[in-house]
User: Which sequence fits this backbone?
């Protein structure tokens, strides 16, 4: 119990640090791929420090209370998600929330962005807010299919409590599906990887920021500590969404392989989990953002609602077929 | 096999089809209201013929001559249904009249609430 | 605390955690500068360096979505034409389908 | 006195409806007190019914009999019988509570928008009639009374739709009246078919006969009755009338209209669970399919709307779809655990639906009160004028779209985690629907509440309206944080009542 309370205090803060760490790694890797040297690893932390000493401007026409509370809400909600996710160790709040909850909590930071953007009374920000919302509608469809498919696979294999994240990360989904199910699961995993850049608002899905078209979009009016909080929320969200993908599709641990026991086992699993998170983010976010350009907003909808939806429905059908055989 | 007893039911089917056809294809609001009333009458006819027994008398026990009685419940139902139908049709007609005063047309295709 | 047999959810635990995290976030927030010096134009909404002439009105929301789903919405608009005859038509269709399904299956 | 509560709870608003017109002659204040007192009394009767059901379980009340609990003295029911069980008591309680709230809200609202006097008298009696109809539909145990009360709700609500006497409100009322006339006649046709075979009108007695022989004609009757009720509750594809009606009806009555379609849901589930339970697998799948269709169509049509109330109306079609999803799964998986869980989610969503969408309509009414407009593009920047209204809207928005920790999330969670056992696609549709629902209301919030400050005339919203809205909001938060309260106290007796068709027949036969 004490351990849990302690973890509940440490995990969210650790999430911020890991998120910032990955932001640093991401920038270095992207720079290397483009033939640049890139900033030092601690650059994101410095950015945050710098933002914190800047003035915190609230525009005249903005709805003040909404404008300044939304960054706060974004960071709080995204830190809370980490408590429900298995980070190599069992979720801190195991038994108090499940997969559907995580899915819905992931909506809140984006919603906070949208409302903050609309509240700032800048035309750029409201265009950004609309785009963010459209993007959310788009990627939620394949994401929902991916999540439900995994749960259904577990359910049809006779497991109980299939939405509990410790059950999901304790079961190796790839072993449950038959041959067709395996193919289906692979397709769905690909779709999940495709959802991540959209969820994080990275290129090619950075339509809501789009510096060159709408001058930073939602963030056009944000400055100082409010912007810093959004920045942190973005960093933590990357960890959260990647952890979700890892828990659903790559739930393997290393402590068993090395025969570790005691306190070393969770530590090793946690580090391995971080490795997997960084890998997922590297594949789905860093590489993609380097090699692609921004999509138009209406293309974002069709890009998500056509191929990933068709593919993941196909994957779901394959999984359902695989369990029938 | 159409016997005398099943004749009312045939009439019911014809009336219902007629009223549905009117509701589907007539543009005039008054005609649609008439169709609703025809359908109401068809359903009433249906109810009353359900309770009919051949050669039956009115279902009143006092001074009854004996023998078969027609069923009492459908008659009560029909009476209620007739009253309700009148109220509904009256209300609909009043709406139609008020609508004509405001829009200046009886055509259902000129309605403005859509989308 | 509710449990559906497939998962569980406890609003109170969530609230407690959120309260704690809010404290942490508030600490981070309070590290930052609170306000700003009022200067001319500083709190004016940014509009490409110029003055914002048209006051902000949110219009044509979700343009991208409707653009991508154009055909679906065209079809839906035709379905919702507001003609009472067509309302009856949909009902007759529903009755027919329901009777068909119930009798055949 | 209290043993006659089931009859009085219907009879009292009926009496009060006609009396209020006479009492209105004495002055509007006296009339308001009279209506309020009679609503309060009806509410107390409804609370009493709930307590009684908790103690006694399902019981029957025979109108006009010496021993009111004796439903069938000659082996079959002869009189009009009311059946009170967990579900019908819950529905009655909801109907009265919503009407009470709506009446308190409407006092100042109607004064402003219609000018009081004679029209206020009419408004009061129509609202009470509407309530009596809903209560009758909720408590009745036989088909013909169901038809009568259905017509009563239709006529009174149609008159309320036309209340503003504008061209478009007459148009909506006309369409509504055509639709409800057809609906009632098809229902009566189906009832006649059943009567022709069994000579019975009592639902439980008919169910008892149907256990032995389920004929072809029964199937036709089932289809007619089910489609008539689907029309009444506004499921896709027969939902078009609903948006017209909700757009034109005064906001305070729109809340009651939502409740009346929830009563429709109740009637549907009563008939499918307690009478035609032998067809449950098929009807369950039918309801599930129509429910998912309602979610998709309702939510996607809400997105492009330009009128606030019309938009909420489309959202309400989608919310009804969620309830149908839960109840249909409960039917299709009648004997399994997931079916029971889904059913409890559906029943819980009935309560949440009334609260969440009710709050939305009340807010739309308050916006109309303050500014005199409902077109989304004509409004903007209200958050600068009334922070309380925007906080209320945020609460309602999050609750409707099922964001934790509000009440909508709990019922949606329960449904997602059970309907996916029937078919995983259903949960996907549900989740997609709820994100689209969020975007619908974000659109409203952005264009009505945010933006540069509202320039036009902004009337202060009176305390009585704000208070009612806050009560809704507090209930939303309360049920969100302590879902156990509703689930144990109200939902699980209702679910038991729906599933226990043996008990339902037992109290009559």
Assistant:
């Amino acid at each position: 119990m004490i351990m849990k309370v302690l973890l509940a205090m440490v995990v969210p803060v650790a999430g911020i640090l890991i998120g910032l760490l990955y932001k640093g790694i991401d920038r270095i890797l992207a720079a290397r791929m483009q033939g640049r040297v890139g900033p030092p690893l601690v650059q994101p932390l410095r950015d945050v420090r710098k933002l914190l000493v800047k003035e915190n401007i609230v525009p005249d026409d903005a709805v003040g209370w909404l404008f300044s509370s939304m960054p706060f809400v974004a960071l709080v909600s995204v830190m809370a998600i980490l408590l429900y996710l298995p980070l190599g160790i069992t979720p801190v709040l195991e038994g108090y929330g499940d997969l559907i909850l995580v899915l819905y909590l992931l909506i809140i930071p984006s919603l906070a962005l949208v409302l903050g953007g609309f509240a700032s009374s800048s035309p750029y920000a409201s265009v950004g807010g609309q785009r963010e919302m459209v993007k959310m509608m788009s990627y939620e469809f394949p994401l929902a299919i991916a999540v439900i498919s995994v749960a259904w696979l577990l359910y049809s294999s006779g497991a109980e409590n299939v939405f509990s994240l410790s059950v999901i990360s304790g079961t190796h989904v790839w072993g449950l599906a038959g041959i067709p199910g395996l193919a289906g699961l692979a397709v769905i995993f690909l779709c999940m990887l495709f959802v991540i850049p959209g969820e994080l608002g990275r290129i090619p899905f950075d339509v809501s920021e789009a510096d060159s078209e709408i001058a930073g979009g939602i963030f056009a009016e944000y400055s100082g500590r409010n912007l810093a909080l959004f920045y942190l929320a973005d960093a933590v969200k990357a960890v959260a969404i990647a952890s979700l993908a890892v828990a659903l599709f790559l739930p393997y641990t290393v402590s068993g392989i090395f025969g570790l026991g005691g306190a070393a086992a969770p530590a090793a699993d946690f580090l391995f989990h971080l490795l997997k998170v960084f890998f997922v983010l590297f594949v789905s976010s860093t590489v993609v953002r380097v090699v692609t350009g921004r999509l138009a907003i209406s293309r974002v909808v069709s890009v998500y609602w056509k191929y990933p939806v068709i593919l993941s429905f196909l994957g779901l059908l394959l999984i359902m077929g695989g369990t029938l055989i | 096999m159409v016997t005398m007893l099943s004749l009312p039911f045939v009439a019911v089917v014809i009336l219902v089809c007629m009223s549905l056809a009117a509701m589907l294809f007539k543009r005039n609001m008054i005609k649609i209201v008439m169709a609703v009333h025809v359908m109401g009458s068809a359903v009433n006819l249906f109810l009353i013929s359900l309770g009919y027994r051949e050669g039956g008398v009115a279902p009143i026990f006092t001074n009854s001559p004996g023998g078969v009685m027609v069923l009492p419940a459908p008659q009560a139902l029909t009476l209620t249904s007739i009253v309700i139908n009148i109220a509904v049709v009256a209300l609909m007609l009043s709406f139609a009249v008020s609508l004509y005063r405001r829009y200046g047309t009886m055509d259902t295709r000129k309605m403005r609430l859509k989308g | 605390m509710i449990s559906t047999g497939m998962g569980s959810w406890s609003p109170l635990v969530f609230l407690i955690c959120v309260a704690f995290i809010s404290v942490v976030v508030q600490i981070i927030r309070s590290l930052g500068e609170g306000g700003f010096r009022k200067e001319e134009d500083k709190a004016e909404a940014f509009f490409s360096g110029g003055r914002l002439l048209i006051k902000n009105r949110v219009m044509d929301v979700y343009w991208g979505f409707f653009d991508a789903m154009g055909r679906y919405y065209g079809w839906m608009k035709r379905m919702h034409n507001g003609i009472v005859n067509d309302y009856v038509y949909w009902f007759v269709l529903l009755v027919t389908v329901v009777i068909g399904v119930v009798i055949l299956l | 006195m209290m043993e006659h509560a089931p009859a009085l709870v219907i009879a009292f608003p009926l009496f009060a409806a006609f009396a209020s017109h006479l009492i209105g002659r004495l002055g509007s204040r006296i009339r308001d007190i009279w209506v309020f007192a009679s609503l309060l009394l009806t509410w107390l009767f409804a609370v009493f019914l709930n307590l009684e059901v908790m103690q006694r379980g399902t019981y029957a009340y025979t109108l006009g009999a010496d021993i009111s609990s004796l439903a069938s003295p000659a082996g079959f029911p002869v009189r009009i019988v009311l059946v009170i069980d967990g579900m019908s008591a819950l529905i009655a309680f909801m109907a009265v509570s919503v009407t009470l709230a709506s009446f308190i809200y409407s006092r100042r609202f109607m004064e402003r928008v219609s000018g009081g006097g004679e029209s206020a008298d009419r408004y009061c009696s129509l609202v009470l009639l509407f309530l009596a109809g809903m209560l009758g539909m909720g408590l009745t145990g036989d088909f013909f009374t169901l038809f009568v009360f259905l017509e009563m709700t239709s006529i009174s609500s149609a008159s309320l739709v036309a209340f503003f006497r504008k061209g478009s409100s007459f148009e909506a009322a006309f369409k509504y009246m055509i639709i409800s006339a057809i609906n009632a006649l098809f229902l009566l046709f189906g009832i006649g078919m059943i009567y022709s075979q069994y000579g019975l009108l009592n639902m439980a007695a008919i169910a008892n006969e149907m256990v032995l022989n389920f004929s072809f004609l029964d199937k036709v009757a089932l289809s007619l009755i089910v489609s008539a009720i689907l029309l009444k509750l506004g499921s896709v594809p027969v939902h078009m009338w609903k948006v017209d009606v909700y757009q034109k009806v005064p906001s305070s009555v729109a809340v009651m209209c939502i409740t009346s379609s929830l009563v429709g849901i109740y009637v549907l589930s009563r008939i499918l669970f307690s009478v035609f339970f032998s067809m449950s697998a098929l009807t369950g799948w039918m309801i599930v399919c129509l429910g998912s269709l309602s979610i998709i169509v309702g939510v996607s049509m809400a997105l492009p709307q330009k009128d606030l109330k019309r938009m909420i109306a489309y959202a309400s079609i989608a919310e009804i779809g969620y309830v149908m999803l839960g109840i249909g799964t409960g039917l299709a998986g009648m004997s399994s655990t997931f079916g029971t869980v889904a059913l409890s989610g559906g029943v819980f969503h009935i309560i949440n639906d009334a609260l969440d969408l009710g709050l939305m309509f009340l807010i739309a009414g308050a916006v109309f009160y303050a500014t005199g407009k409902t077109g989304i593009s004509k409004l903007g920047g209200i958050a600068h004028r009334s922070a309380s209204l925007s906080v209320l809207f945020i609460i309602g928005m999050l609750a409707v779209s099922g964001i934790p920790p509000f009440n909508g999330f709990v019922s949606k969670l329960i449904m997602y985690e059970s309907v996916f056992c029937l078919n995983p696609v259903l949960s996907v549709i549900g989740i997609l629907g709820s994100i689209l629902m969020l975007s619908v209301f974000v659109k409203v919030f952005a264009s009505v509440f945010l933006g540069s400050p509202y320039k036009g005339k902004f009337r202060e919203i009176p305390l009585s309206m704000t208070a009612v809205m806050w009560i809704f909001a507090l209930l939303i938060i309360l049920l969100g944080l302590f879902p156990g309260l509703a689930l144990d106290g109200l939902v699980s007796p209702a679910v038991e009542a729906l599933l226990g068709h043996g008990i339902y027949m037992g109290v009559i036969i």
About this structure: Chain D has 19 helices and two strands.
